[in-house]
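Feature request, filed as a ticket because there's no other form

It would be nice if the structure record came with a short human-readable summary line next to the tokens. Right now we just get the raw output. Example of a typical job, pasted below so the devs can see what we mean:
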Amino acid sequence: MEKTGKRRHPTRRETLVGGASAAALFAAGSAAAQTAEGQPLMGNPDLPEEPRKRMGWAIVGLGTFGVGQVIPGFANARHSRMTAFVSGNSDKAQTLGERYGVGRHYDYSSFDSIAEDPEIDCVYIVLPVGLHAEYTIRALKAGKHVLCEKPMATSAKEAEAMVRAAAEAQRKLGVAYRVHFEPNNVHVLGQVRGGTLGTMRFISAEHGFSANPDYPPHKWRLEKALGGGGSLWDIGIYGINTSLMMLPGDRVTGVSAAYATPEGDPRFTEVEGAIDYRLTMASGINLQGSSSYCWSPYVSRQRFFGSEASVELQPATTYGFNQITLESGGSAPRTYQAGDAMSQFAAQVDGFSLAARGAMELRTPGEMGLRDMRIMEACYASADQNGAVVKIDIPV
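Raw output as currently delivered:
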């Protein structure tokens, strides 16, 4: 035996012999061998529903957003499953159906026959804005619950008809304000309600990108009939809706706005390219924002200033990456993430599924979408009058 105190490594022969001995022990069923045993289900785990019990969804419109964000979101849904696609492109529907296991396909001429399909409980309208009202109302008349992409419609008048149709059909109507399910925005909402910021004093919002008329998802946004409005209607609505989310119980009492569209830009013959707006609240808080189709790079920023601290979401409303910066007096700013932004898509459809069942309150009802239509129309009315204040009284 060595007496140096150093560890002696086994020789190659000893390793081979030892390995052979271990194999022999297992082969002989020695007591030294380990046995795999099943364990009982412990506690009360939060398991997803069985697929056949989940709410069935028809996706109406298989454009870039629907294919790239909405459809993949169902992969992590726990109460929702896709059962049908509605598209004017049968080849696209077939290809996606094979990929996602969706065998029911409808086109726009056969759309109303979804009324006879028991596998469809909810319909998600992911069409250009100019088609929202028509297909939402048709889906409601077919007896289905409807989640409609934002902005809800091309006008408050259309939105009123959609809300009325939902009441007549006794079905749920929601607007896809996904930010209400995005974990970083939800976290900030909790801080606001929990008093971390103290008393809210001021809110600002900036949202924009550079519109490319040669890119199909941008092209229809520059057409009044399909887009409904310009940058405010499409992306400025994020600033308005997200800001008001932080002010429950308040009221919008006045609106002023000014167009900021570059002179002579050929992209903006039908809709505004940019607009700056200001909302006055009954509480005395001012909310100001800007939206633009003329900015580069993409901008998505929300800032909330309170008496004790302030918080910034930058980016604030993206599909996959949002970030929080919290700053209070005497402390260095802290930047962090409260969750994965991609989870917002599954959370949104599951939230609507549960609301359709009556198991929870609908966070983003059609009435919220109608509210935002009225506010944005007041912004346009003010801008048309060179920034004159338009008096309104709209509860948040």
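Something like this underneath would help us a lot:
The domain at 180-351+362-395 is CATH 3.30.360.10 (Dihydrodipicolinate Reductase; domain 2).
The first helix runs from residue 12 to 27.
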